[in-house]
# Entry
Amino acid sequence: MLLIFLGLTLVLPAFPQNYTMLYQFSEINQNLMINPAASHPYKTVLGIPIIGHASVDYQNTMFAPKDYFNDNSLNYRVENILNNMRSSENILINQNLDLLFVAFAIKKTYISFGARQVSSVNLALPRDLLKLAYYGNSETYGDFSLSRKDMNIEIFAGQIYHLGFQQSFLNDSLIIGARVKRIFGLAHAQVSRLDIDLQLDMFKWQVETDILVETSGSNIEETIKVYGLQNLILPKNRGWGFDFGATYKLKNLTLSASLLNVGSISWKNDTKIYTSKGSYDFKGLTFDEDTQSLDYESILDTLAAAFNVKDTSDISYKSKLPTHFLSGIGLTLNPKHRIGLTYQGSVWGDKLNHNFGASYIFSPGKRFQLIFAYSLLSGRMSNFSFGASGALGPLQIMLLTDNIYGLVMPTTLKSSSLRFGINLILFKNQTTSNLPKDENTYAVPFDNKPAVP
Amino acid sequence: MKKNITFLLVAALFIGCMKDMNLNPDDAFFYKGDWSASVVNGRIDLKSLVLNNDMITADPDGLLRFVFHQDSVFMQNVYDYTKIPDQAPFLVKVTLDSPEFETGTNLGTFGGAKFKSIKIASGTLHWVATNPTFQPVELRLEIKNTEINGEPLIIDIACQPGQSQNSTSLDGLNFDLTQGVGNLSYNNLSFKFTVSSRAVGTNGEEIDLSLTLNDLSINGATGYFGQYNLELPSGSMPTDFGVLSNIAEGLYLANPSFKLITKSNIGLPVTFTPSITGISKNGRIVPLNAEPFVFAGSSNVGNNYTYAYELSPETSNLDNFLANVPRQIVYSGNVLLNPDGETANDNFIDQDGFIVMGVEAELPLELKTKNLVLEQTFNDLDLGIDDEEVDFVEALTLGFSIENGFPLDADFYTYFIDENGTVVDSAYIAMFDAATTDVAGNVIAPATSVRYLEFTEGNVKNLLKSKSIKAKIVLNTSGDGDQIVRILDSYYFDILIGTRFKLNYTL
# Structure
């Protein structure tokens, strides 16, 4: 198992914020965070503080290491990357750390709560703009429009305090769950509105903009100075989020769905609002017939007036939480083998991203599970993923990574993701003192009567 | 053992694949952006040109008219026309015991001039007396028919024994030259001598007296001033043709009006033979070839007389003279006084006499241009580019998007000149087409042209290294410069100049 863990650590795999594998891997109790109605075999779970669950995601859909680190000239490499871009590519860095995670069952009710520290940077880079910067506008690169689908940025840092609840119905065939999240934002930046039209040719540059950028907490020193140190711990930037989920079991077939992050955050600390709305036709310096000279000085004033650039401070604004919708279907072939299909729709900016996943879970014993998954991310990236969860007594260690192909071909990696955690667990109807010793004993998550020797 | 094999297998796979990567890749980056942008835009509107230029007016139908005045091309000292030569000495013997007596002579003149009166502006009467006695003798000389301060001019001559001499100023003296000892009615000079005092015993002695009028200049005269030629003072002057100043050559006007305006208050007919030559911006010399003309002069004292002599292409070289667009006019010539000889009317001139000749040009812009050249040189260029950086532009294109409301087409030439003044490169473009005109030469529809002037990498290097750039625009009216067109104040010229430059810059 150590060998496998080492291998997974080296791989630094897959697509960030890809929930399709974790969604089906209910042996890890933290998947309640992506389906509040997920069924679990555990009576009690206590995540070890700080290391109960940690994840790091990095995604760069624009290029893989080999696209840059090769023997070709830098110009060739850059051109190769640009010419293979889609209309928009993403760079995302996301980090989650569970400060506390506790879950326990009371009869048919399952309650979980905890605190999570989150930070993320999400960029959408527009191909057309990058090509314009590299190639110039003389050929076909100077006529395009940009929206938030093409060009976006969102930065977030904060803490989430959450309380989850699930209840079984219909003789445990139906589980309904929900989670409420109190969110404290430390820093944030987002592009709330972006429409840019560019028509750049030899005789006229026509630019129209409608841009709204909102930031909060960009100056930590200023925040501490104005709002006090306590605002770093419990900032005044607060919001609510809600997750909903349902799971229905029909014999060996399990249907499930969840809706995550319904809510928003109100940002109040150290806010700055930048807007630009206007249009400008630039036809070069204007020859002034009266003075018989070129009018240089008016350009900057005219530009500022035309684009109506403004920045204002200390005006609160709201940001929506990145909403995800997941649905899955699982089929338990026998107590050792389970397969599942998952769909994940994620909204960011004005764009809906689609991920599809297929997974196979092998449970050779109650305390050890392996998951092998395939994901098709945003209709483009294929990932083969792998994860494992093992328990030594009440200590559960889990590690999940996407894109196992990266183990073989790390130079092609465009993203990496690692989830790691250590929990203390107690199985339902079990105590740590009478855990089964038989290696052939296994857990069946959706069976409301877990196997007992 | 099984675990170790698995680990080694994974490690080998990972390390093997890393061989595909070069962790120290080439980092030399050449920025090769190919950018286009507009550089300058502008409208040249003849309406505003008219408003801002005193030299251009618009007719009711909008036809522009270029008006040029130069009041005093020629100006001559009119007293040159009444010059009096230094006179020969007039010798008189005065017998000491004789009574007073009168004698006279004629004023010497140029060209047979017959003065009836003159007013001396400056001059002297110089006398030399030779007294053979041993005692002083005093003589009194009255210049007859003269007046100064209401009195005739009387000079006392003190003749010391031996020879003595002196001069007397004649400034301001008026002569009436119609009376004298002879029967002439002009140029008469009369003198009356009286012996004022002498010593006893000098009877029969004679004083030899020599009288000379020297350095006479006059500022008033009547009579006949003679017939002779005088050279006009030569000189040169710059012209100020305003907006036309940049035109090197090639402007042919259909109906130019060019007049030599002569104005004077002296009563003297003259024939002017002007010699006027125009020198263009490029040093091309074209004479006007104006024919001689007669100026009748004023008919009455105190009246001014003005005469406008109009030149035409038929009687002069006016069309070519104007087409040369002179930046400098060189003038000279001569004047013939009284070309018809003596007439019944006396010539006259007084102390305020003047004669000036100016130029008045009215040039309605009905024209044809045959290779009309506009030139401008931009000197002392410093583009701030080191020699080793001249490669950073691989190619350059200038684009001209023009809506031309003028009935003129244009070709554009640029010359890149190095620090030695040598043209190291050049470029050419047929920049825009002429607007469409009707048969009268009025524009009925503007012409839109989009043209590109491409510079190769070599051109660009030469451009970046050049120290000055000469721009030349050659304009032709429709029909290869043969059609007469009319320039109206409604014409305009919209221009957009864009540039496209392909860079190759090492970052």
